[in-house]
Amino acid sequence: MKQGKFITIEGGEGAGKTTLIEQLVRRCEQLGQEVVATREPGGIPIAEAIRAVILNRDHTAMDARTEALLYAAARRQHLAEKVLPAIARGAIVLCDRFVDSSLAYQGHARGLGFDEVWDINRFAIEDCMPDLTLYLDIEPEAGLSRIHADAGREVNRLDLEGLSFHRRVREGFRLAAERFPDRIVTLDASESPERIADAAWARLETRLSH
Ligand code: TYD
Fold first, then answer.
1. Going by C-beta distance under 8 Å and a sequence separation of 6 or more, which residues neighbour residue 201?
2. Are 106 and 117 in contact (CB under 8 A)?
């Protein structure tokens, strides 16, 4: 049976994930393959409803473990309803954020612990890990100034965290990249969008042919 690929794109705020995904969609389509671009938390109605609860700016009382469990719940539903069926019919799935975001944000930046957050996520995703993860690495100062320059962008509850939180997020992603060196490729997100897309595409093309 034809088997698709599961590719995730990770990074802190303002790293340029959306721009990169648009580029990769175009290039995958040129190969004549079905491409599904999606995002977490969200991507399907049940997970979008969970997203609205998590990111609501009024929910300042949300406990860190509740937050981690809600992300894992949204992830499970999105995987079961959208990602796995797409992979099964041979599509390339490009997903904006996945489990590494939980490891970086909840595990490391919120201080819940990498292993604890990994455990609840293993329950959620079983053994369905990405074939490749492209991590866009950027200085938090640079990323945050990019999103603040974008007046049209919605500001969510996590955007309101301070710089030190976003520094810990970056450390968390770097820890994840050390933990999973065969899966996670780190890209320098301070480069131009074209260079980032070229570097990402080189890695992705190799992975698609294996
Ligand atoms: P979003 O507006 O999609 O941000 P971005 O464009 O940066 O992806 O909001 C998603 C937010 O949720 C973002 O701040 C990262 C956070 N997040 C987690 O904390 N844990 C997770 O597991 C995921 C998927 C996202």
1. 23, 24, 27
2. yes
CA of 130 to the centre of ligand 1 (A): 18
Three-state secondary structure call for residue 117: helix
Q: Please classify residue 50 by burial: count the beta carbons closer than 10 Å to its beta carbon, then call 0-12 exposed, 13-18 middle and 19+ buried.
A: buried
Nearest-CA residue for ligand 1 atom 25 is 101
pLDDT tens for residues 18-77? 999 999 999 999 999 999 999 999 999 999 999 999 999 999 999 999 999 999 999 999
The two three-digit tokens of residue 160, written as one number: 């309101």
Q: Sketch out the chain's domains with CATH numbers.
A: 5-208 (3.40.50.300)
Of the residues 19, 53, 70, 101, which should be mutated to test ligand 1's pocket, given the most ligand atoms within 8 Å of the CB?
Answer: 101
pTM for the predicted model, two decimal places = 0.95
**Would you say residue 183 has pLDDT above 70?**
yes
| Cβ atoms within 10 Å of 154's Cβ, excluding its own | 8
Amino acid, res. 32: G
Residue 126, judged by CB atoms within 10 A of its CB (0-12, 13-18, 19+), counts as: exposed
